[in-house]
Amino acid sequence: MDTTTVLNIIIWGALAAWGIYEIIQYFRRKNAAQDLTSEEFKQNMRKVQVIDVREKDEFAAGHILGARNIPYIQMKQRLGEIRRDQPVYLYDERRTLSRRASLLLKKEGFTDIYRLKDGYESWDGKIKRDK
What we know:
This protein has helices at about 5-30, 40-45, 55-60, 95-105; strands at about 35, 50, 65, 70, 90, 115, 125-130. The chain is of the alpha/beta class. The chain has a single domain, classed as Rhodanese-like domain (Oxidized Rhodanese, domain 1, 3-Layer(aba) Sandwich), CATH 3.40.250.10. Helix 4 (about 95-105) links the parallel strand 5 and strand 6. The protein is elongated and about 65 Å long. The N and C termini lie far apart (about 65 Å). About 25% of the residues are buried.
């Protein structure tokens, strides 16, 4: 075999391994929490911790009334602010960050984790905007 063939085999092998890894991660994130519709999310909001995992400026532009902001990039450092004895409701704009956050929380031992199914962009409940 010449070097081009060997190089092609290495590149295709690495791409296949990366693809398999991404598929596994997708299902791990998806299964880390239960998705709730807006109506289901609203039902128990007063009894749970509602956490917006978007960045501070996005949170200030508009967020679900009663939610607190713990951006995903800070979540590992701020885990102490999240109670383990209450359900955790997560949301972001479209669920990308909330999926990652739910996997992180699951790894840290949280069990009662839920996500807003279609993200904040489809929320039709009360919101608050910081000025």
